[in-house]
Amino acid sequence: MHATEREQFILSLLETRGFVSFRELEEKVDGSAATIRRDLERLASNGRLVRVRGGARLPPETEDDGAPREKEFHLQGVPFHENIALNRKQKEAIGAAAARLCRPGEAVMIDGGSTTLQMCPHLQGLNLSVLTNSLHIVSALINQSGTRVLVPSGAVFPEQSIILSVFEDAGMPQFHAPKLFIGAAAIGGGGMMQVDPVLVAAERQLIERADEIILLADASKFDAPSGHIVCPLAEIDMVVTDDRLVDKHAKMIEDEGVRIVIAP
């Protein structure tokens, strides 16, 4: 693949999503890591993209007066309004079980997702400090007396109603928590996965700020083990799931030293 072909391929990925990770480029571009870095630097020097932590993004567009205007980004995957209806009963039970893991007065992080959202009704009265990137979770918690809600800065992705700060560390508050409650698009032998690499970069930022990683996933997520790996199973401390979990998947989790909680 010649330099011009590589550049066109990189720019086509950016036009689709607005951000591309360096890891994805290493997987898809026919060239060494050093070659890809040179391609990115050349495109950045020509104003075609902006180098950011973990990858590259499109430069801001401009308004008629010359002021910068960020391009609207889109995520791959099932939109939130469709996903929330899938396995609803199991997700509600998982959310309730996960909420029981919270201690009064502690700080936690809750990643955006249709399963993590189900924790919210059960957090009333715990006086938690909650860092979340989900506008749905903000809406569910904002009127709870005693619950303090924090959000990162970043771009709003309307399909999932989440705020993702993947471009700069400055977008994330200086926040550390004993627990991170996180969802996944799929779980397999390779680990916890998401459909879009933008989500991977954002969720890695959350993982790095938590002592304990608690994965909330209904059993159907183990039947579609494909996607971009967020972290290996061994990095997860606990999986909260439902009673449809089959033995082979339970063994896969337990073999990595991960505790399983079955929501009643």
Automatic annotation (TrEMBL):
Pfam families per the UniProt record, alphabetical: DeoRC, HTH_DeoR
Gene Ontology MF, one: DNA binding
SUPFAM superfamilies: NagB/RpiA/CoA transferase-like (SSF100950), Winged helix' DNA-binding domain (SSF46785)
Annotated keywords: DNA-binding, Transcription, Transcription regulation
Record domain HTH deoR-type: where: 3-58
UniProt cross-references to SMART domains, sorted A to Z: DeoRC, HTH_DEOR
Family annotation (InterPro entries): Carb_Metab_HTH_regulators, DeoR-like_C, DeoR_HTH, NagB/RpiA_transferase-like, Tscrpt_reg_HTH_DeoR_CS, WH-like_DNA-bd_sf, WH_DNA-bd_sf
PANTHER family in alphabetical order: AGA OPERON TRANSCRIPTIONAL REPRESSOR-RELATED, HTH-TYPE TRANSCRIPTIONAL REGULATOR SRLR-RELATED
Protein name (record): DeoR/GlpR family DNA-binding transcription regulator
Source organism per UniProt: Sphingopyxis jiangsuensis
